Amino acid sequence: MDVMGDKATLYETGRFVHAADRDETGAAAEEARRRLAAESGDVEAMSVLGAMLLRRGDLDGAEPQLRAATAAGDRAAANNLGVLLHQRGYADEAAGWWRIAAVAGSAPAAHALGRYHRERGDEPAAEYWLRQSAEQGHVLGAYALADLLEHRSDSEAETWMRAAADHGHREAAYRLARALDQRAAQEHADGTLPVPIPAQRTSADGKPRATAGDTAPDGDGVRPEGDGAPALTLADEAEQWYRQAAARGHRRAALQLGAILEKRGELKEAGRWYLTSAKDGEPRAACALGFLLRDAGDEENAAVWWLKAAQEGDGNAANALGALHAERGESQTAERWYRAAMDAGDVNGSYNLALLCAGQGRTAQAEQWYRHAAYAGHREAANALAVLLLQGGDAAGAEPWFSKAAEAGSVDAAFNLGILCASRGQEAGALQWYERAAAAGHTEAALQAGIARLREGDEPTAERHLRCAAGGGSAEAAYRLATLLDARRPPAKAHELGEPATEKTECEEWYERAAEQGHRRAQVRVGMLAAARGDVVEAARWYRQAAEAGSRNGAFNLGLLLAREGSEPEAALWWTRAADAGHGRAALRLALLYARRGELVEGQRWCDRAVALGSGEVAERAARLRDALRQELSA
Questions:
Q1: 3-state SS assignment for residue 10
Q2: What is the pTM of this model?
Q3: Burial of residue 432, with CB atoms counted within 10 A of its CB: 0-12 exposed, 13-18 middle, 19 or more buried
Q4: Which of 141-145, 187-191, 491-495 has the highest mean pLDDT?
Q5: How far is Cα of residue 416 from the mean position of the Cα atoms in its chain?
Q6: In terms of DSSP bridges, do strands 10-12 and 15-17 run parallel, antiparallel, or are they unpaired?
Q7: First-last CA distance in the chain
Q8: Looking at 427-568, which runs of residues are DSSP E strands?
């Protein structure tokens, strides 16, 4: 009989490893058969019977059987006797039996002995025995060795973690995936190219399969490199290991896999993994599933999962519930959930509570919660606190918070610092902060930086900033960019009759973009360009839009256009609107109009208005006309 073989079912680290479950009747029959054999002196039967009783928790019944089998040289019994003694609290005696079994070649015993030494701080001994276990192909030994080496930052750790993962250890698969994921993220941050990894060969059931040249099952378990298989990036391989761990019930792996799929836009599959993880009790997955459902328009079910996650201590979910109730006008419930988020350690709870208080006009409380979040490092809270202080007239108190937020990466804070510097006449400091915010994509900051650079005469830099701001949707930036380009272009050639109209220049396109966004000066300019092309209808449309939005130049130009087309009464209406808004030339046009009609008193009134409003030339012409009208009235 091969008493030194691991034929018995082994019990180690609190778990049995057995070929298949049997029903209670079959188990009872098997136990009775083994007991009869053990009583007749069968060492293997003693070992197996001891393991069966140990599994059932019958330590008193198991111990004599295991001791008898161990005395006869059964290494599996020695290992299980160690497990039994460890459960009774005799760790040192257990280690002695594990050593006997390990020396005899038991990989599980070597693993248990290695863990015993590590728990006592003897890492060299722990590494020795864990390596013995791992090199015999013991999965738990490989994982424990990898964990020990990783603790020491030993590069060999990944080899053994991969060995354990290859043999189905789900925690090893998860940790290997995390390590690969972090390395991929670091390489991306460093700007290096992804490292290709040979693809893992799998069988039809999705598990790693052995190929020629692979190590035997009782070898070190290291996965061989593929021969001719397509290369994978670190991120691709990380996803594969997440998927393997998740398929084996690892809830954090399922969460990570869901996040990867969601980022890639595969929302349906992402939702399935989030659901799997959430059902296994992962609150972050429940929270993520809630956001996925909300984005799909299902707020009711989103709230259900957020509630589940929040009740399990997820601050992000509590914040989401608070925001949901705040949107519904249920401020008291929202406040309760924001406070729950704070209790869970989520600083966003303080910030959101401050926003809620600020929206209700509770300024003192808003300041209190902004401070709470700002001191905890919340950059947007620091910026909001600074704005609140600035609005209260405390510029000196606001500036340090703006600086703290800006240094932490708040783009809005950098822009606000620029405004603060500009208000003090510190143009160089303002430009520095504007350009810092502009570099991070702040549209208004890019506009202000462009205007500042124009004042300095640095047109190339100004143009770059204005293009960024205009591209970000700023109508004012589009208009200023257009005027900059307009000033550079050569004078237009005289347009010959029958000659096809030239294509629009870039500056015209920017004028039109600003005009379409409601920029009144741009609308006037587009109208002027259309009029110059002879497109009266288009010109009138843009002038009218500008005039109706309050542009006095638009009203004046529309009046000119209508007068040329013979609609003088309507022209007078628009000139009157422009003159009432302070347009001197419009007042002079009205004076001339009334003078021609013989309404000298009204003409003289508009002359007085033109003198008061107009530029030097307009005022001079209006004064001459007024004198002529007076003479006519006194004649």
A1: strand
A2: 0.71
A3: middle
A4: 141-145
A5: 24
A6: antiparallel
A7: 145
A8: none
**Long-range pairs, 205-211, Cβ under 8 A, ≥24:** 206/244, 206/247, 207/168, 207/244, 208/166
State the SS3 of 420-464.
Answer: HHHHCCCHHHHHHHHHHHHHCCCHHHHHHHHHHHHHHCCHHHHHH
> What's the rounded Cα separation, in Å, for the pair 72 and 76?
11
CA–CA separation, 394 and 470 (whole Å) = 33
Which is it for the CA torsion 462, 468, 470, 472, positive or negative? negative
The pair of structure tokens assigned to 575 is 């000139």
Mean pLDDT of the chain: 87
Tokens 């608070």 — which residue? 322
Cross-strand pairs, 12: 15
Measured CA to CA, the distance from residue 234 to residue 244 in angstroms comes to 15
Give 307-369 as a DSSP string.
Answer: HHHHHTT-HHHHHHHHHHHHHTT-HHHHHHHHHHHHHTT-THHHHHHHHHHHHTT-HHHHHHH
Q: What angle do CA 538, 540, 542 make, to 5 degrees?
A: 70
SS3 120: coil
Distance CA(406)–CA(108), nearest Å, equals: 56
Q: What is the pLDDT of residue 304?
A: 96
pLDDT score for 212: 27
